[in-house]
Amino acid sequence: MRFLARRLGFYLLTAWAAITLNFLIPRLMPGDPVELLVARMKGNVEPEAIDAMRRAFGISDASLWQQYLDYLGNLARGELGRSITFFPTEVSTVIADSLPWTVGLVGVATLISYLIGTSLGVLMAWRRGTWLDGVLPAATFMHAVPYFWVALALVFVFGVTLQWFPVSRAYGLDVMPGMTGEFAASVLYHAALPAVTIVIASMADRILGMRNVMVTTLGEDYVVMAEAKGLTSRRVMWAYAARNAILPNITSFALSLGFVVGGSVLTEIVFSYPGIGSMLLKGVENEDFPLMQGIFLVISLAVLVANFLADLAYVVLDPRTRQESE
Amino acid sequence: MKIKIGFGILVFFALMALAGPLLIGADPAATSDDGLQGPSAEHWLGTTQTGQDILTQIVYGARISMGIGVLSAVIANLLAILVGLVGGYFGGAVDEVLSVLTNIFLVLPALPLIIVLAGYLPQRGVGSVAVVIAVTGWAWGARVLRAQTLSIRRRDFVQAARASGEGPLRIIFFEIMPVLLPVIATSFLATVVAAILAEAGLSFLGLADLSTVSWGSMLYFAQNGQALLIGAWWWFIPPGLCIALIGTGLALVNFGIDEIANPRLRTIKVKAPRKART
Protein backbone atom coordinates (compact mmCIF):
# COMPACT_ATOMS: atom_id res chain seq x y z
CA MET A 1 0.00 0.00 0.00
CA ARG A 2 2.98 2.29 -0.42
CA PHE A 3 1.29 3.95 -3.39
CA LEU A 4 -1.74 4.93 -1.31
CA ALA A 5 0.40 6.08 1.60
CA ARG A 6 2.40 8.33 -0.70
CA ARG A 7 -0.74 9.80 -2.27
CA LEU A 8 -2.31 10.33 1.13
CA GLY A 9 0.82 12.17 2.22
CA PHE A 10 0.57 14.41 -0.84
CA TYR A 11 -3.10 15.19 -0.20
CA LEU A 12 -2.39 16.07 3.42
CA LEU A 13 0.34 18.41 2.21
CA THR A 14 -2.02 19.95 -0.36
CA ALA A 15 -4.74 20.33 2.27
CA TRP A 16 -2.25 22.16 4.45
CA ALA A 17 -1.27 24.34 1.46
CA ALA A 18 -4.94 25.19 0.79
CA ILE A 19 -5.49 26.03 4.46
CA THR A 20 -2.39 28.22 4.56
CA LEU A 21 -3.26 29.88 1.24
CA ASN A 22 -6.65 30.67 2.71
CA PHE A 23 -4.90 32.32 5.65
CA LEU A 24 -2.45 34.27 3.49
CA ILE A 25 -4.75 35.55 0.70
CA PRO A 26 -6.52 38.25 2.75
CA ARG A 27 -3.16 39.31 4.22
CA LEU A 28 -1.20 39.37 0.96
CA MET A 29 -3.77 40.91 -1.38
CA PRO A 30 -3.39 44.67 -1.80
CA GLY A 31 -5.54 46.52 0.68
CA ASP A 32 -6.96 45.53 4.06
CA PRO A 33 -10.27 43.63 3.69
CA VAL A 34 -11.72 45.50 6.66
CA GLU A 35 -10.73 48.89 5.20
CA LEU A 36 -12.19 47.75 1.87
CA LEU A 37 -15.44 46.85 3.57
CA VAL A 38 -15.60 50.14 5.48
CA ALA A 39 -14.86 52.09 2.29
CA ARG A 40 -17.65 50.31 0.41
CA MET A 41 -20.06 51.12 3.24
CA LYS A 42 -18.98 54.76 2.89
CA GLY A 43 -17.91 55.03 6.52
CA ASN A 44 -21.34 54.23 8.01
CA VAL A 45 -19.79 51.79 10.44
CA GLU A 46 -19.46 51.93 14.19
CA PRO A 47 -15.92 51.54 15.54
CA GLU A 48 -17.13 48.51 17.54
CA ALA A 49 -18.32 46.87 14.33
CA ILE A 50 -14.90 47.42 12.75
CA ASP A 51 -13.29 45.80 15.78
CA ALA A 52 -15.67 42.85 15.53
CA MET A 53 -14.85 42.44 11.84
CA ARG A 54 -11.14 42.49 12.55
CA ARG A 55 -11.65 39.77 15.11
CA ALA A 56 -13.74 37.76 12.64
CA PHE A 57 -10.85 37.90 10.17
CA GLY A 58 -8.39 37.07 12.92
CA ILE A 59 -6.52 40.23 12.00
CA SER A 60 -5.01 41.62 15.18
CA ASP A 61 -1.83 43.28 16.39
CA ALA A 62 -0.40 39.90 17.33
CA SER A 63 2.49 38.55 15.26
CA LEU A 64 1.64 36.84 11.96
CA TRP A 65 2.75 33.53 13.46
CA GLN A 66 0.40 33.92 16.45
CA GLN A 67 -2.47 34.83 14.07
CA TYR A 68 -1.70 31.69 12.06
CA LEU A 69 -1.78 29.48 15.16
CA ASP A 70 -5.09 31.04 16.27
CA TYR A 71 -6.50 30.46 12.78
CA LEU A 72 -5.46 26.80 12.81
CA GLY A 73 -6.94 26.40 16.29
CA ASN A 74 -10.29 27.85 15.17
CA LEU A 75 -10.27 25.64 12.11
CA ALA A 76 -9.60 22.54 14.21
CA ARG A 77 -12.76 23.37 16.18
CA GLY A 78 -14.66 23.80 12.93
CA GLU A 79 -15.06 27.55 13.40
CA LEU A 80 -15.01 29.49 10.14
CA GLY A 81 -16.34 32.73 11.58
CA ARG A 82 -19.70 34.37 11.01
CA SER A 83 -21.15 35.20 7.63
CA ILE A 84 -21.78 38.89 6.95
CA THR A 85 -24.52 38.21 4.37
CA PHE A 86 -26.49 35.90 6.66
CA PHE A 87 -25.45 37.53 9.94
CA PRO A 88 -25.36 36.14 12.61
CA THR A 89 -25.34 32.65 11.06
CA GLU A 90 -22.05 30.78 11.28
CA VAL A 91 -20.24 30.24 7.96
CA SER A 92 -20.08 26.53 8.78
CA THR A 93 -23.89 26.41 9.01
CA VAL A 94 -24.33 28.15 5.64
CA ILE A 95 -21.92 25.66 4.10
CA ALA A 96 -23.55 22.66 5.78
CA ASP A 97 -26.92 23.74 4.33
CA SER A 98 -25.67 24.22 0.76
CA LEU A 99 -23.00 21.52 0.40
CA PRO A 100 -25.37 18.51 0.09
CA TRP A 101 -27.05 20.09 -2.96
CA THR A 102 -23.72 20.57 -4.72
CA VAL A 103 -22.31 17.16 -3.80
CA GLY A 104 -25.49 15.47 -5.01
CA LEU A 105 -25.70 17.42 -8.26
CA VAL A 106 -22.02 17.42 -9.21
CA GLY A 107 -21.41 13.88 -7.97
CA VAL A 108 -24.20 12.29 -9.98
CA ALA A 109 -23.60 14.43 -13.08
CA THR A 110 -19.85 13.71 -13.06
CA LEU A 111 -20.46 9.98 -12.69
CA ILE A 112 -22.91 9.94 -15.61
CA SER A 113 -20.60 12.03 -17.77
CA TYR A 114 -17.66 9.75 -16.94
CA LEU A 115 -19.53 6.55 -17.78
CA ILE A 116 -21.02 7.83 -21.06
CA GLY A 117 -17.89 9.70 -22.14
CA THR A 118 -15.52 6.82 -21.47
CA SER A 119 -17.75 4.25 -23.18
CA LEU A 120 -18.12 6.51 -26.22
CA GLY A 121 -14.36 6.99 -26.32
CA VAL A 122 -13.82 3.22 -26.29
CA LEU A 123 -16.37 2.68 -29.05
CA MET A 124 -14.95 5.48 -31.19
CA ALA A 125 -11.44 4.08 -30.97
CA TRP A 126 -12.70 0.55 -31.77
CA ARG A 127 -14.83 1.64 -34.72
CA ARG A 128 -12.23 4.01 -36.07
CA GLY A 129 -12.89 4.92 -39.70
CA THR A 130 -16.69 4.58 -39.45
CA TRP A 131 -19.40 7.19 -39.05
CA LEU A 132 -18.55 7.42 -35.35
CA ASP A 133 -15.56 9.59 -36.34
CA GLY A 134 -18.15 12.27 -37.01
CA VAL A 135 -18.47 12.70 -33.25
CA LEU A 136 -14.85 13.97 -33.10
CA PRO A 137 -15.40 17.50 -34.46
CA ALA A 138 -18.46 17.88 -32.22
CA ALA A 139 -16.47 16.73 -29.19
CA THR A 140 -13.64 19.12 -30.08
CA PHE A 141 -16.16 21.96 -30.15
CA MET A 142 -17.90 20.95 -26.92
CA HIS A 143 -14.55 20.66 -25.19
CA ALA A 144 -14.19 24.46 -25.33
CA VAL A 145 -17.79 25.50 -24.64
CA PRO A 146 -18.24 27.45 -21.39
CA TYR A 147 -20.43 25.63 -18.85
CA PHE A 148 -22.58 28.68 -18.21
CA TRP A 149 -23.27 29.11 -21.90
CA VAL A 150 -24.53 25.52 -22.19
CA ALA A 151 -26.67 26.31 -19.15
CA LEU A 152 -28.07 29.47 -20.79
CA ALA A 153 -28.84 27.59 -24.00
CA LEU A 154 -30.65 24.80 -22.11
CA VAL A 155 -32.64 27.33 -20.09
CA PHE A 156 -33.62 29.07 -23.31
CA VAL A 157 -34.68 25.94 -25.20
CA PHE A 158 -36.10 23.61 -22.53
CA GLY A 159 -37.02 26.12 -19.83
CA VAL A 160 -38.35 29.22 -21.53
CA THR A 161 -39.36 28.14 -25.03
CA LEU A 162 -40.62 24.57 -24.51
CA GLN A 163 -41.28 24.99 -20.76
CA TRP A 164 -40.49 21.32 -20.10
CA PHE A 165 -38.24 21.88 -17.10
CA PRO A 166 -38.02 24.40 -14.25
CA VAL A 167 -35.11 26.84 -14.62
CA SER A 168 -34.35 27.79 -11.02
CA ARG A 169 -34.38 26.50 -7.43
CA ALA A 170 -33.73 22.95 -6.25
CA TYR A 171 -37.34 21.95 -5.57
CA GLY A 172 -40.81 23.35 -6.16
CA LEU A 173 -42.43 25.93 -3.89
CA ASP A 174 -45.44 23.65 -3.52
CA VAL A 175 -43.67 20.74 -1.83
CA MET A 176 -42.47 20.46 1.74
CA PRO A 177 -38.87 19.26 2.17
CA GLY A 178 -38.95 15.83 3.72
CA MET A 179 -38.55 12.13 3.08
CA THR A 180 -41.51 11.95 0.73
CA GLY A 181 -41.70 10.64 -2.80
CA GLU A 182 -43.23 13.92 -3.91
CA PHE A 183 -40.25 15.91 -2.62
CA ALA A 184 -37.74 13.50 -4.19
CA ALA A 185 -39.53 13.76 -7.55
CA SER A 186 -39.47 17.55 -7.37
CA VAL A 187 -35.74 17.54 -6.55
CA LEU A 188 -34.96 15.24 -9.49
CA TYR A 189 -37.13 17.32 -11.82
CA HIS A 190 -35.35 20.53 -10.80
CA ALA A 191 -31.90 18.95 -11.00
CA ALA A 192 -32.44 17.75 -14.59
CA LEU A 193 -31.23 20.80 -16.52
CA PRO A 194 -28.25 21.65 -14.25
CA ALA A 195 -27.14 18.01 -14.33
CA VAL A 196 -27.47 17.80 -18.12
CA THR A 197 -25.40 21.00 -18.40
CA ILE A 198 -22.54 19.50 -16.41
CA VAL A 199 -22.77 16.19 -18.31
CA ILE A 200 -22.68 17.91 -21.72
CA ALA A 201 -19.89 20.33 -20.85
CA SER A 202 -17.60 17.81 -19.16
CA MET A 203 -18.21 14.77 -21.38
CA ALA A 204 -16.10 15.89 -24.36
CA ASP A 205 -12.87 15.69 -22.36
CA ARG A 206 -13.64 12.10 -21.39
CA ILE A 207 -14.49 11.11 -24.98
CA LEU A 208 -11.34 12.62 -26.49
CA GLY A 209 -9.06 11.44 -23.68
CA MET A 210 -10.34 7.86 -23.68
CA ARG A 211 -10.31 7.62 -27.46
CA ASN A 212 -6.68 8.71 -27.70
CA VAL A 213 -5.41 6.31 -25.02
CA MET A 214 -7.55 3.50 -26.42
CA VAL A 215 -6.28 3.99 -29.97
CA THR A 216 -2.71 3.75 -28.71
CA THR A 217 -3.57 0.64 -26.66
CA LEU A 218 -5.22 -1.06 -29.66
CA GLY A 219 -1.81 -1.16 -31.35
CA GLU A 220 -0.27 -3.18 -28.51
CA ASP A 221 0.84 -6.76 -29.14
CA TYR A 222 -1.42 -8.29 -26.48
CA VAL A 223 -4.49 -6.89 -28.25
CA VAL A 224 -3.37 -8.38 -31.56
CA MET A 225 -2.66 -11.63 -29.73
CA ALA A 226 -6.12 -11.65 -28.17
CA GLU A 227 -7.68 -11.16 -31.60
CA ALA A 228 -5.48 -13.90 -33.05
CA LYS A 229 -6.68 -16.31 -30.35
CA GLY A 230 -10.15 -15.80 -31.76
CA LEU A 231 -11.71 -14.08 -28.76
CA THR A 232 -14.96 -12.24 -29.41
CA SER A 233 -14.69 -8.57 -30.37
CA ARG A 234 -16.54 -7.54 -27.27
CA ARG A 235 -14.10 -9.37 -25.03
CA VAL A 236 -11.04 -7.96 -26.79
CA MET A 237 -12.49 -4.43 -26.75
CA TRP A 238 -13.54 -4.29 -23.09
CA ALA A 239 -11.46 -6.89 -21.21
CA TYR A 240 -8.16 -6.43 -23.03
CA ALA A 241 -7.93 -2.95 -24.52
CA ALA A 242 -10.31 -0.78 -22.47
CA ARG A 243 -9.25 -2.49 -19.23
CA ASN A 244 -5.72 -1.18 -19.73
CA ALA A 245 -6.55 2.11 -21.41
CA ILE A 246 -8.68 3.15 -18.46
CA LEU A 247 -5.69 3.64 -16.13
CA PRO A 248 -4.25 6.86 -17.61
CA ASN A 249 -7.84 7.97 -18.14
CA ILE A 250 -8.55 7.83 -14.40
CA THR A 251 -5.52 10.00 -13.71
CA SER A 252 -6.60 12.66 -16.20
CA PHE A 253 -10.16 12.43 -14.86
CA ALA A 254 -8.93 13.16 -11.34
CA LEU A 255 -6.97 16.16 -12.58
CA SER A 256 -9.97 17.53 -14.47
CA LEU A 257 -12.15 17.48 -11.34
CA GLY A 258 -11.07 20.97 -10.29
CA PHE A 259 -12.21 22.24 -13.68
CA VAL A 260 -15.56 20.44 -13.43
CA VAL A 261 -16.14 21.95 -9.98
CA GLY A 262 -15.35 25.41 -11.35
CA GLY A 263 -17.85 24.86 -14.16
CA SER A 264 -20.53 23.64 -11.81
CA VAL A 265 -20.13 26.79 -9.69
CA LEU A 266 -21.14 28.77 -12.80
CA THR A 267 -23.91 26.28 -13.62
CA GLU A 268 -25.43 26.60 -10.14
CA ILE A 269 -25.45 30.37 -10.51
CA VAL A 270 -27.34 30.27 -13.82
CA PHE A 271 -29.98 27.98 -12.30
CA SER A 272 -30.06 29.74 -8.88
CA TYR A 273 -29.37 26.28 -7.47
CA PRO A 274 -28.96 26.62 -3.69
CA GLY A 275 -25.54 24.94 -3.68
CA ILE A 276 -22.14 26.11 -2.64
CA GLY A 277 -21.42 27.87 -5.97
CA SER A 278 -24.37 30.25 -5.57
CA MET A 279 -23.25 30.91 -2.00
CA LEU A 280 -19.73 31.70 -3.22
CA LEU A 281 -21.09 34.35 -5.59
CA LYS A 282 -23.31 35.79 -2.83
CA GLY A 283 -20.22 35.96 -0.62
CA VAL A 284 -18.14 37.77 -3.24
CA GLU A 285 -20.94 40.19 -4.19
CA ASN A 286 -21.55 41.16 -0.56
CA GLU A 287 -17.87 41.43 0.38
CA ASP A 288 -18.59 38.56 2.76
CA PHE A 289 -14.95 37.53 3.13
CA PRO A 290 -15.42 34.89 5.85
CA LEU A 291 -18.05 33.11 3.73
CA MET A 292 -15.90 33.31 0.56
CA GLN A 293 -12.91 31.85 2.32
CA GLY A 294 -14.82 29.13 4.08
CA ILE A 295 -16.33 28.03 0.78
CA PHE A 296 -12.99 28.06 -1.04
CA LEU A 297 -11.55 25.88 1.70
CA VAL A 298 -14.44 23.41 1.58
CA ILE A 299 -14.35 23.20 -2.24
CA SER A 300 -10.59 22.58 -2.20
CA LEU A 301 -10.88 19.86 0.44
CA ALA A 302 -13.78 18.25 -1.45
CA VAL A 303 -11.69 18.11 -4.63
CA LEU A 304 -8.86 16.52 -2.66
CA VAL A 305 -11.19 13.85 -1.27
CA ALA A 306 -12.51 13.17 -4.79
CA ASN A 307 -8.93 12.83 -6.03
CA PHE A 308 -8.20 10.35 -3.28
CA LEU A 309 -11.27 8.31 -4.28
CA ALA A 310 -9.96 8.26 -7.85
CA ASP A 311 -6.65 6.96 -6.50
CA LEU A 312 -8.49 4.19 -4.65
CA ALA A 313 -10.18 3.20 -7.91
CA TYR A 314 -6.76 3.18 -9.54
CA VAL A 315 -5.39 0.80 -6.91
CA VAL A 316 -8.36 -1.54 -7.42
CA LEU A 317 -7.86 -1.55 -11.19
CA ASP A 318 -4.07 -1.69 -11.37
CA PRO A 319 -2.58 -4.73 -9.60
CA ARG A 320 0.93 -3.29 -9.93
CA THR A 321 0.22 -0.63 -7.31
CA ARG A 322 -0.74 -3.37 -4.87
CA GLN A 323 2.28 -5.60 -5.44
CA GLU A 324 4.70 -2.92 -4.23
CA SER A 325 3.80 -3.63 -0.62
CA GLU A 326 5.38 -7.10 -0.63
CA MET B 1 -5.88 19.28 -42.34
CA LYS B 2 -6.86 19.76 -38.72
CA ILE B 3 -4.03 22.22 -38.23
CA LYS B 4 -5.15 24.18 -41.29
CA ILE B 5 -8.76 24.52 -40.12
CA GLY B 6 -7.55 25.37 -36.65
CA PHE B 7 -5.16 28.03 -37.92
CA GLY B 8 -7.89 29.40 -40.20
CA ILE B 9 -10.20 29.92 -37.22
CA LEU B 10 -7.44 31.53 -35.15
CA VAL B 11 -6.35 33.87 -37.96
CA PHE B 12 -9.98 34.90 -38.48
CA PHE B 13 -10.42 35.86 -34.83
CA ALA B 14 -7.01 37.51 -34.62
CA LEU B 15 -7.88 39.70 -37.63
CA MET B 16 -11.25 40.46 -36.09
CA ALA B 17 -9.62 41.61 -32.86
CA LEU B 18 -6.89 43.64 -34.56
CA ALA B 19 -8.59 45.15 -37.62
CA GLY B 20 -12.30 44.75 -36.81
CA PRO B 21 -12.73 47.82 -34.61
CA LEU B 22 -10.99 49.97 -37.26
CA LEU B 23 -13.42 48.75 -39.94
CA ILE B 24 -16.53 49.16 -37.84
CA GLY B 25 -15.52 52.37 -36.15
CA ALA B 26 -18.70 52.66 -34.06
CA ASP B 27 -18.65 52.84 -30.27
CA PRO B 28 -19.63 49.45 -28.77
CA ALA B 29 -21.23 51.14 -25.77
CA ALA B 30 -23.30 53.60 -27.85
CA THR B 31 -26.99 53.15 -27.16
CA SER B 32 -29.84 53.81 -29.56
CA ASP B 33 -33.62 53.71 -29.63
CA ASP B 34 -33.72 50.36 -31.45
CA GLY B 35 -33.73 48.16 -28.35
CA LEU B 36 -33.97 44.35 -28.56
CA GLN B 37 -34.13 44.13 -32.33
CA GLY B 38 -33.54 40.75 -33.94
CA PRO B 39 -30.89 40.33 -36.64
CA SER B 40 -31.58 42.59 -39.62
CA ALA B 41 -29.73 44.25 -42.51
CA GLU B 42 -29.01 47.25 -40.32
CA HIS B 43 -27.95 45.27 -37.22
CA TRP B 44 -26.55 41.94 -38.47
CA LEU B 45 -26.65 40.36 -35.02
CA GLY B 46 -29.45 42.44 -33.56
CA THR B 47 -29.32 44.82 -30.62
CA THR B 48 -29.30 44.69 -26.82
CA GLN B 49 -31.96 46.03 -24.49
CA THR B 50 -30.42 49.50 -24.66
CA GLY B 51 -30.03 49.36 -28.43
CA GLN B 52 -26.31 48.60 -28.55
CA ASP B 53 -25.24 46.85 -31.75
CA ILE B 54 -24.23 43.26 -30.90
CA LEU B 55 -21.88 42.78 -33.84
CA THR B 56 -19.93 45.88 -32.79
CA GLN B 57 -19.75 44.53 -29.24
CA ILE B 58 -18.53 41.12 -30.46
CA VAL B 59 -15.78 42.72 -32.52
CA TYR B 60 -14.61 45.01 -29.72
CA GLY B 61 -15.09 42.24 -27.15
CA ALA B 62 -12.67 40.08 -29.14
CA ARG B 63 -9.91 42.52 -28.20
CA ILE B 64 -10.55 42.29 -24.47
CA SER B 65 -11.34 38.57 -24.32
CA MET B 66 -8.44 37.47 -26.53
CA GLY B 67 -6.15 40.15 -25.09
CA ILE B 68 -6.67 38.94 -21.54
CA GLY B 69 -6.40 35.33 -22.74
CA VAL B 70 -3.06 35.93 -24.46
CA LEU B 71 -1.69 38.22 -21.74
CA SER B 72 -2.39 35.79 -18.92
CA ALA B 73 -1.18 32.84 -21.02
CA VAL B 74 2.13 34.69 -21.55
CA ILE B 75 2.49 35.28 -17.79
CA ALA B 76 1.44 31.72 -16.95
CA ASN B 77 3.87 30.24 -19.46
CA LEU B 78 6.78 32.34 -18.23
CA LEU B 79 6.07 30.90 -14.77
CA ALA B 80 5.68 27.40 -16.22
CA ILE B 81 8.98 27.63 -18.13
CA LEU B 82 10.81 28.92 -15.08
CA VAL B 83 9.42 26.29 -12.69
CA GLY B 84 9.44 23.36 -15.15
CA LEU B 85 12.88 23.88 -16.68
CA VAL B 86 14.67 24.81 -13.48
CA GLY B 87 13.14 21.88 -11.57
CA GLY B 88 13.74 19.40 -14.38
CA TYR B 89 17.32 20.51 -14.97
CA PHE B 90 18.59 20.72 -11.39
CA GLY B 91 16.69 17.71 -9.99
CA GLY B 92 17.17 16.82 -6.33
CA ALA B 93 15.69 18.98 -3.57
CA VAL B 94 14.94 21.95 -5.88
CA ASP B 95 12.92 19.65 -8.13
CA GLU B 96 11.12 18.02 -5.19
CA VAL B 97 9.95 21.39 -3.85
CA LEU B 98 8.95 22.75 -7.28
CA SER B 99 7.13 19.50 -8.19
CA VAL B 100 5.11 19.52 -5.01
CA LEU B 101 4.23 23.19 -5.61
CA THR B 102 3.20 22.37 -9.19
CA ASN B 103 1.07 19.40 -8.14
CA ILE B 104 -0.63 21.44 -5.44
CA PHE B 105 -1.66 24.13 -7.94
CA LEU B 106 -2.73 21.41 -10.36
CA VAL B 107 -5.15 19.89 -7.84
CA LEU B 108 -6.60 23.08 -6.33
CA PRO B 109 -9.78 24.13 -8.18
CA ALA B 110 -8.76 27.13 -10.32
CA LEU B 111 -12.04 28.98 -10.81
CA PRO B 112 -13.05 29.17 -7.14
CA LEU B 113 -9.53 30.43 -6.37
CA ILE B 114 -9.81 33.03 -9.14
CA ILE B 115 -13.20 34.13 -7.80
CA VAL B 116 -11.85 34.50 -4.25
CA LEU B 117 -8.76 36.40 -5.45
CA ALA B 118 -10.92 38.67 -7.62
CA GLY B 119 -13.12 39.31 -4.58
CA TYR B 120 -10.14 40.87 -2.81
CA LEU B 121 -8.97 43.01 -5.73
CA PRO B 122 -9.55 46.71 -4.99
CA GLN B 123 -9.74 47.48 -8.74
CA ARG B 124 -10.58 44.78 -11.26
CA GLY B 125 -8.79 46.06 -14.34
CA VAL B 126 -7.61 44.09 -17.37
CA GLY B 127 -4.08 43.67 -16.00
CA SER B 128 -4.99 42.48 -12.52
CA VAL B 129 -7.59 40.02 -13.87
CA ALA B 130 -4.96 38.60 -16.26
CA VAL B 131 -2.47 38.17 -13.41
CA VAL B 132 -5.03 36.45 -11.18
CA ILE B 133 -5.91 34.01 -13.97
CA ALA B 134 -2.22 33.35 -14.71
CA VAL B 135 -1.41 32.63 -11.06
CA THR B 136 -3.87 29.73 -11.12
CA GLY B 137 -3.10 28.49 -14.64
CA TRP B 138 0.63 27.78 -14.89
CA ALA B 139 0.84 24.35 -13.25
CA TRP B 140 -0.10 22.13 -16.19
CA GLY B 141 2.56 23.64 -18.45
CA ALA B 142 5.18 23.40 -15.71
CA ARG B 143 4.44 19.71 -15.23
CA VAL B 144 4.75 18.90 -18.94
CA LEU B 145 7.91 20.97 -19.34
CA ARG B 146 9.53 19.39 -16.30
CA ALA B 147 8.93 15.90 -17.68
CA GLN B 148 10.42 16.90 -21.04
CA THR B 149 13.43 18.59 -19.43
CA LEU B 150 14.10 15.47 -17.35
CA SER B 151 14.22 13.38 -20.51
CA ILE B 152 16.67 15.61 -22.39
CA ARG B 153 19.00 16.84 -19.68
CA ARG B 154 21.26 13.78 -20.08
CA ARG B 155 21.48 14.18 -23.86
CA ASP B 156 24.88 14.66 -25.44
CA PHE B 157 24.42 18.29 -26.45
CA VAL B 158 23.57 19.25 -22.88
CA GLN B 159 26.55 17.29 -21.54
CA ALA B 160 28.76 18.96 -24.13
CA ALA B 161 27.56 22.41 -23.11
CA ARG B 162 28.24 21.58 -19.49
CA ALA B 163 31.70 20.24 -20.31
CA SER B 164 32.56 23.39 -22.23
CA GLY B 165 31.89 25.37 -19.07
CA GLU B 166 28.49 26.97 -19.78
CA GLY B 167 26.63 28.09 -16.69
CA PRO B 168 23.37 26.33 -15.67
CA LEU B 169 21.16 29.30 -16.55
CA ARG B 170 22.72 29.58 -20.00
CA ILE B 171 22.23 25.83 -20.56
CA ILE B 172 18.60 25.98 -19.41
CA PHE B 173 17.56 28.97 -21.48
CA PHE B 174 19.84 28.73 -24.53
CA GLU B 175 20.41 24.98 -24.94
CA ILE B 176 17.32 23.25 -23.53
CA MET B 177 14.55 25.82 -24.06
CA PRO B 178 14.93 26.09 -27.87
CA VAL B 179 14.52 22.29 -28.13
CA LEU B 180 11.32 22.49 -26.09
CA LEU B 181 9.74 25.28 -28.16
CA PRO B 182 7.09 22.98 -29.74
CA VAL B 183 6.06 21.79 -26.27
CA ILE B 184 5.95 25.38 -25.03
CA ALA B 185 3.81 26.32 -28.04
CA THR B 186 1.22 23.59 -27.35
CA SER B 187 1.09 24.43 -23.67
CA PHE B 188 0.72 28.12 -24.56
CA LEU B 189 -2.26 27.44 -26.83
CA ALA B 190 -3.96 25.30 -24.19
CA THR B 191 -3.41 28.04 -21.60
CA VAL B 192 -4.96 30.67 -23.88
CA VAL B 193 -8.20 28.64 -24.08
CA ALA B 194 -8.29 28.13 -20.32
CA ALA B 195 -7.64 31.84 -19.73
CA ILE B 196 -10.34 32.98 -22.19
CA LEU B 197 -12.79 30.61 -20.47
CA ALA B 198 -11.76 31.85 -17.02
CA GLU B 199 -12.12 35.49 -18.05
CA ALA B 200 -15.54 34.77 -19.55
CA GLY B 201 -16.61 33.05 -16.33
CA LEU B 202 -15.36 35.89 -14.18
CA SER B 203 -17.01 38.58 -16.34
CA PHE B 204 -20.21 36.57 -16.50
CA LEU B 205 -20.34 36.67 -12.70
CA GLY B 206 -19.84 40.44 -12.88
CA LEU B 207 -16.46 40.14 -11.15
CA ALA B 208 -14.28 41.60 -13.91
CA ASP B 209 -14.24 45.13 -15.29
CA LEU B 210 -17.81 45.60 -16.50
CA SER B 211 -17.14 49.02 -18.05
CA THR B 212 -15.18 47.38 -20.88
CA VAL B 213 -16.99 45.20 -23.40
CA SER B 214 -15.82 41.58 -23.39
CA TRP B 215 -17.64 38.43 -24.46
CA GLY B 216 -18.04 37.50 -20.80
CA SER B 217 -19.51 40.88 -19.84
CA MET B 218 -21.89 40.68 -22.82
CA LEU B 219 -23.20 37.42 -21.36
CA TYR B 220 -23.45 39.08 -17.94
CA PHE B 221 -25.63 41.85 -19.33
CA ALA B 222 -27.65 39.40 -21.42
CA GLN B 223 -28.37 37.30 -18.31
CA ASN B 224 -29.22 40.34 -16.18
CA GLY B 225 -31.24 41.94 -18.99
CA GLN B 226 -33.47 38.83 -18.97
CA ALA B 227 -32.45 38.06 -22.58
CA LEU B 228 -33.55 34.45 -22.05
CA LEU B 229 -37.03 35.25 -20.79
CA ILE B 230 -37.59 37.79 -23.57
CA GLY B 231 -36.40 35.24 -26.10
CA ALA B 232 -33.51 37.41 -27.36
CA TRP B 233 -31.34 34.48 -28.47
CA TRP B 234 -29.21 36.75 -30.70
CA TRP B 235 -27.92 38.45 -27.57
CA PHE B 236 -26.40 35.46 -25.75
CA ILE B 237 -25.63 33.00 -28.58
CA PRO B 238 -22.86 34.96 -30.41
CA PRO B 239 -20.46 35.62 -27.47
CA GLY B 240 -20.53 31.99 -26.30
CA LEU B 241 -20.19 30.74 -29.86
CA CYS B 242 -17.08 32.90 -30.37
CA ILE B 243 -15.49 31.53 -27.18
CA ALA B 244 -16.24 27.95 -28.20
CA LEU B 245 -14.97 28.51 -31.75
CA ILE B 246 -11.65 29.95 -30.58
CA GLY B 247 -11.33 27.01 -28.22
CA THR B 248 -12.06 24.64 -31.10
CA GLY B 249 -9.45 26.34 -33.29
CA LEU B 250 -6.76 26.11 -30.61
CA ALA B 251 -7.70 22.50 -29.81
CA LEU B 252 -7.58 21.53 -33.51
CA VAL B 253 -4.06 22.92 -33.81
CA ASN B 254 -3.02 21.05 -30.67
CA PHE B 255 -4.62 17.76 -31.77
CA GLY B 256 -2.96 18.16 -35.17
CA ILE B 257 0.42 18.46 -33.46
CA ASP B 258 -0.42 15.37 -31.34
CA GLU B 259 -1.24 13.39 -34.46
CA ILE B 260 2.06 14.31 -36.06
CA ALA B 261 3.78 13.03 -32.93
CA ASN B 262 1.58 9.91 -32.60
CA PRO B 263 0.40 8.67 -36.03
CA ARG B 264 -1.91 6.06 -34.45
CA LEU B 265 -4.31 8.85 -33.48
CA ARG B 266 -5.06 9.84 -37.07
CA THR B 267 -8.57 9.24 -38.36
CA ILE B 268 -7.60 7.41 -41.53
CA LYS B 269 -9.83 4.70 -42.97
CA VAL B 270 -8.50 1.40 -41.66
CA LYS B 271 -8.17 -1.36 -44.27
CA ALA B 272 -10.48 -3.87 -42.59
CA PRO B 273 -13.20 -2.06 -40.64
CA ARG B 274 -13.51 -3.71 -37.26
CA LYS B 275 -17.27 -4.02 -37.51
CA ALA B 276 -16.76 -6.54 -40.32
CA ARG B 277 -15.48 -9.06 -37.80
CA THR B 278 -17.67 -11.23 -35.63
UniProtKB/TrEMBL annotation, chain A:
Keyword Transport tagged: yes
Membrane topology, from the record: Multi-pass membrane protein
Cited CDD domains: TM_PBP2
Span of domain ABC transmembrane type-1: 99-310
Gene Ontology biological-process annotations: transmembrane transport
Annotated InterPro entries: MetI-like (IPR000515), MetI-like_sf (IPR035906)
Pfam families: BPD_transp_1 (PF00528)
Source organism, top-level taxon: Bacteria
Keywords associated with the record: Membrane, Transmembrane, Transmembrane helix, Transport
Cellular component per GO, a single term: plasma membrane
Subcellular location, record wording: Cell membrane; Membrane
Membrane spanning stretches: 7-25, 101-126, 147-167, 187-204, 253-274, 294-317
Keyword Membrane: yes
PANTHER family registered for this protein in UniProt: OLIGOPEPTIDE TRANSPORT SYSTEM PERMEASE PROTEIN (PTHR43376)
Family: Belongs to the binding-protein-dependent transport system permease family.
Name of protein: ABC transporter permease
Organism field: Nonomuraea longispora
Automatic annotation (TrEMBL), chain B:
Membrane topology reported for the UniProt record: Multi-pass membrane protein
The entry's keywords: Cell membrane, Membrane, Signal, Transmembrane, Transmembrane helix, Transport
GO molecular function, one term: dipeptide transmembrane transporter activity
CDD domains to which the protein is assigned, alphabetical: TM_PBP2
Transmembrane regions: 64-90, 97-120, 126-145, 179-198, 234-257
GO cellular component, as recorded: plasma membrane
Signal peptide range: 1-19
Subcellular location field: Cell membrane
Domain ABC transmembrane type-1: 62-254
One Pfam family from the record: BPD_transp_1
Main location: membrane
Keyword field contains Protease: no
PANTHER family: D,D-DIPEPTIDE TRANSPORT SYSTEM PERMEASE PROTEIN DDPC-RELATED, OLIGOPEPTIDE TRANSPORT SYSTEM PERMEASE PROTEIN APPC
Family of this protein: Belongs to the binding-protein-dependent transport system permease family.
Protein's recorded name: ABC transporter permease
Native source organism of the sequence: Nonomuraea longispora
Lineage of the organism: Bacteria, Bacillati, Actinomycetota, Actinomycetes, Streptosporangiales
